[in-house]
Amino acid sequence: MALKVKAVERLVKFNKEDAGTYRYVMSPELYIALSQAKVIREAALRSGVSQGVMKACWDAAGEVIKAWATEGHSVALPGLGTMRFGLRAKSVEKVEDVKAGLISSRRIIFTPTQDLKDELADTSIQITCYDRNGDIVKRVTSADAGTIEDPEGNENGSENGGTEQNGGGDNNGGGDNNGGGDNGGGFDTGS
Fold it and tell me: What pTM was estimated for this model as a whole?
């Protein structure tokens, strides 16, 4: 299985040197959310326990994780990583000004295990490139040697006989999109 990424040609406005130019901006293609019932069914099948037992364990584990995480603990999620409480707040110069109202958001921070990071790094990537009109202009995979897949069947990959630009970056999705910020390399599931 491969992770799907889209590269959409967009007018860049956030950077002074690139303002007013078109760039291919990559983002993951989001899949549908799996229902809890489907996850429980699959876990029961893989573990050999009944769905009722798996649901009871799932619900109990969820309650324990929620209780401990909201008490400020870092909670281990077997095979996945850890989750913990995080926040964003304004800083103040004087201790007299410290108050709960300075907190702008409370969130859950997930930090994956090294095994999960390695698994993600080893998963192939499929990139579909869309021009500014929404037309597919190129498809690339992380195992691709850089050749252009031409949906029109031209040998050199472009309609006019020239070469086609790939919009920058490399064939593996380019860049590091792990959520960044102050969350230790994980992702932020909060607001």
Answer: 0.59
